[in-house]
Amino acid sequence: MSEMRILIIEDDPEAANYLVKAFREAGHTADHAADGLAGYARASDGDYDVLIVDRMLPKMDGLSLIGGLREQKIETPVLILSALGQVDDRVKGLRAGGDDYLGKPYAFSELLARVEVLSRRKNGMPGAPTVLRIADLELDRLGHTLTRAGKDIPLQPREYRLLEYLMRHAGQVVTRTMLLEHVWDYHFDPQTNVIDVHISRLRAKIDKGFNTPLLHTVRGAGYMIRDSAR
Amino acid sequence: MTALGKLFRTTAFKLSIAYLIVFAILAGAVMFWVSSDMRRVIDEQVEATIEAEIKGLSDLYRQGGVRRLVDIIDRRSRQPGASLYLVTNFQGQAIAGNILDLPAGVLTSPGIRETAYERVGEAGVDRRALARIFVLPGGFRLLVGRDLEDRETIARIFGRALLTSLFWITIIGMIGGLFVAQRVLRRVDAMNDSAQRIMEGNLAQRLPVGRSNDELDRLATNLNSMLERIQELMTGLREVSDNIAHDLKTPLTRLRNHAEQALRSPGSPEEHRASLEKMIEESDNLIGIFNSLLTIARLEAGAEPSAPKRFDAGQVAKDVAELYEPLAEEAGFSLTVDVDTDCWANGNRELVSQALANLVDNALKYGAPEDATTERAVRMEIRRNKQAVEISVADRGAGIPAADRERVLGRFIRLEGSRSQPGSGLGLSLAAAVARLHNGSIRLADNAPGLRVTIAIPAADRTAIKPD
């Protein structure tokens, strides 16, 4: 993942420091604004890849800030952080112009994965190509067929969508929650980790019998599909 | 005095006084009407008699002249009674009769009138009479009258009766009012005392209810039902907070233990890492419990996340089954879905999915058959009837005894035997809250063997516009 410029607009100094430090450790540039107005000013001037906006901010609340930016045609992707994690709050946040929403408390790995996906979107991911390729794995999005090393692999519809999502974000960590949201359209946590079983099934189909595994588990974060030979 | 003052201030007493005044006015009016009517009747009779007598006397005068008239008058005047007579000559001097004196001017104007007079032999006693003066030919004047003593007596009797009855009405009314007020006051005071004790914290106290089923009794009964409900809610709340305290303290303690362990032991970085990972796992578990609790609380407060929409409950069930299918297969379960055609429902797809996911999760966790010969099976059925779509999840496990079926819908309720499995005891509570939010119902039944949980939610019309 190439280096990202991130602006964190968060009034709690401890949380902000933690985020700045964590993003820098992950190899990114992170700036911090402590209130809504300062955040709005920096986001308007600076060239950021992603904004992380707390919903409740002094001087200007998060949703107004996003609304203001969008009115100025500043389309920097925004991830909203909020203690209000319920479905309706999330819908409100996305409607106000946010691109993603994460309820507090969150795992940093989850935040990082989502920010990386957002930044990729900003840097232009033109309508994904009709054929997605990772090493010798090929997913034909027109014919809905999957081959590895030229060998056909039959997929269930859901497995197809799961693999498609992973391949569109190849090289990026994809968390279980992101998969639930984008592949299943669920915004709740199932009590048991059902995603792992789906992944291991998919892995059995695409990696079994091949020398280089493509679908990797990222400990404490999620999954990633990548060509490990490169 | 204050007790009496309190009595006087009661609504019952004020009401009695108001009634008393109304009755007194009514009684007075009736008395007045009766007495004036009677007076009128008496006057009419007297007038008629006088009229007849004058006619007779004037006939007599025409036949026998003044001498004959005076004779008759003299004779009649001597008889005791109420009749009054007077004959005067053209000079105004009395020539016969039993009237001693009349106010001036009475004789000069003919006609009927009420007048004062003095009777012969009773000089100085003022009396009243109704009299008619009749002018005879030859300048003589004839007065015929009736003393009004009787009429005045009757009027006095009526007046006295009126006063007496008013007096007694007032006395009895006051006593009655005080009596009623005191009775009511005693009951209201008893209720107030009970209310006071309840406010002091004795929630088990109830208001006294009499046997008469009057408005106070009905009020007390209703207030008692209200107190009953409040007590239930309070008990429920206390149980919930006890449970929350207990069920949150357990993972918090584990979290703390891991941290202490990591600090105490001089272990390798790997061991510390493992401790930290366990701590994160426990925190995530806690966050999960908090999220579930918040969701349930919001659903129970009736906070609908978004407006209800049409959705295909059959598809929702199939999606949930599809999500859990690999997990079921791994655990050796068969997971089947049986859907009626047209299972469109009205509500929130996401919440219903979550509720169903919880039910399937439970079935896979606790629904393993007790004997090895029974097939491990979880079956979802989606049935459409007139008003509702019923979604049921059934397993072949040990089931839940009938006595516990209501209880397990509560928060943090985990039955013996399930405590060994991971879980928060919130899955069924959430499903129940989702059903309630949809104005639907949740039912736990025996699947012989096993448990069958059925959620019913309002059905949507098939002909409605297809959802987006």
What does this structure look like?
- The complex is a heterodimer of chains A (230) and B (468).
- Chain A is an alpha/beta fold and 230 residues long.
- Chain A folds into two domains: 5-122, Rossmann fold (3-Layer(aba) Sandwich); 131-225, Winged helix-like DNA-binding domain superfamily/Winged helix DNA-binding domain (Arc Repressor Mutant, subunit A), CATH 1.10.10.10.
- Chain A contains eight helices and twelve strands.
- Chain A has helices at residues 13-25, 36-45, 62-71, 87-95, 108-122, 157-168, 176-184, 194-206, and strands spanning 5-9, 29-33, 50-54, 78-82, 100-103, 131-134, 137-140, 145-148, 151-153, 174-175, 215-218, 222-225.
- In chain A, the strands form three sheets. A five-stranded parallel beta sheet of chain A has the order 2-1-3-4-5, with helices on both faces. A four-stranded antiparallel beta sheet of chain A has the order 6-7-8-9, with helices on one face.
- In chain A, helix 1 links the parallel strand 1 and strand 2 (29-33).
- In chain A, helix 2 (36-45) runs parallel beside helix 3 (62-71) and helix 6 (157-168) packs across helix 7 (176-184).
- The longest helix of chain A is centred in the middle third of the chain and has 15 residues, at 108-122.
- The radius of gyration of chain A is 19 Å and the shape is elongated.
- The two termini of chain A are 14 Å apart.
- With 468 residues, chain B is α+β, with helices and mostly antiparallel strands.
- Chain B has three domains: 2-153, Beta-Lactamase (2-Layer Sandwich), CATH 3.30.450; 215-300, Signal transduction histidine kinase, dimerisation/phosphotransfer (DHp) domain (Helix Hairpins); 309-458, Heat Shock Protein 90.
- Chain B contains eight helices and 13 strands.
- Chain B has helices at 2-8, 11-78, 149-199, 215-264, 269-300, 313-330, 349-366, 427-437, and strands spanning 83-88, 94-97, 99-101, 111-119, 127-135, 141-147, 309-312, 334-339, 344-347, 377-384, 388-394, 441-446, 451-458.
- In chain B, strands 2-1-6-5-4-3 form a six-stranded antiparallel beta sheet. Chain B has a five-stranded mixed beta sheet with strand order 8-10-11-13-12.
- In chain B, helix 7 runs antiparallel to helix 8 (427-437).
- The longest helix of chain B is centred in the N-terminal third of the chain and has 68 residues, at 11-78.
- Chain B is rod-shaped and about 160 Å long.
- Chain B starts with a helix and ends in a 10-residue tail after the last strand.
- The relative contact order of chain B is 0.07.
- The mean pLDDT of chain B is 83.
- The interface between A and B is medium-sized, with 23 and 31 residues.
